[in-house]
């Protein structure tokens, strides 16, 4: 059984989590004494999904080869461009719905994503790869369209719903990239072959990117801290956050599956 097949077999076990988050019990949402308590509850409830994102990264990082890395990175380069584009679109097309308190944080995220795009492109080139003929995986296209599908369903809560999509994906990325980082030293095909220096560059990049991803997730935390003071607002958050967990999980497993087949 391939790594992708093993990972797909685990996904149904997690569906209950995002399905329950999407339709929470109103009594549960009323019990929190503060936004911080709600945030802590969300992270604890979503933890099995977050841990699975670590597993996805670790399983892939421990078993992939050079061609698999090139496939994986091709999608990664596109992802960084798409993330920067999403945030830029949010602060331009939807600027009237964005609290100015958070505008500089979102601007910083755009800058970070641009730097990640450069890093990913540089590492892809070090592995001998390029973006020639690339077409994004449909699950990743869906993921980066999610802020503009979920958030506008209730414009009164646009900012809260938007940060509950892309920034929640950033939280899953922290776990996923830790998994890859921890697994790469165990991959002899990469660490003992002619692409050792490129592999070390890839591994080291995750430390820098993780710091940024934690900051990006903190944007959601800060927005939630300011606004998640009542059950109605918390339900708006969870509707989009649940979708972010679902789509990011399916997209990451699909990426591993296709990278194994060198089909990206």
Question: Which SSEs are present, and which pair or pack?
Answer:
Layout: H1 3-10, H2 15-22, H3 26-30, H4 35-63, H5 66-93, H6 103-126, H7 138-150, H8 158-163, H9 166-183, H10 188-191, H11 196-227, H12 231-260
Helix pairs in contact: 1-12, 2-12, 4-9, 4-12, 5-6, 5-7, 5-12, 6-11, 7-12, 9-11, 9-12
Q: Can you summarize this structure?
A:
The chain is an all-alpha fold and 264 residues long.
Number of helices: 12
- Low-pLDDT residue spans: none
What is the straight-line distance between the termini? Answer: 20 Å
What does the largest sheet look like?
Answer: none
CATH T-level topology: Heme Oxygenase, Chain A
Cα-based radius of gyration, to the nearest Å: 18 Å
Helix and strand composition category: mainly alpha
Protein name: Ferritin-like domain-containing protein
Organism: Pyrobaculum aerophilum
Walkthrough of the structure:
It is a single chain. The protein contains 12 helices and no strands. The protein is mostly helical and 264 residues long. The protein has one domain (31-260): Heme oxygenase-like (Heme Oxygenase, Chain A), CATH 1.20.910. The two termini are 20 Å apart. The model has no long low-confidence stretch (mean pLDDT 97).
List keywords for this structure.
Heme Oxygenase, Chain A; 12 helices; mainly alpha; Ferritin-like domain-containing protein; single chain; 264 residues
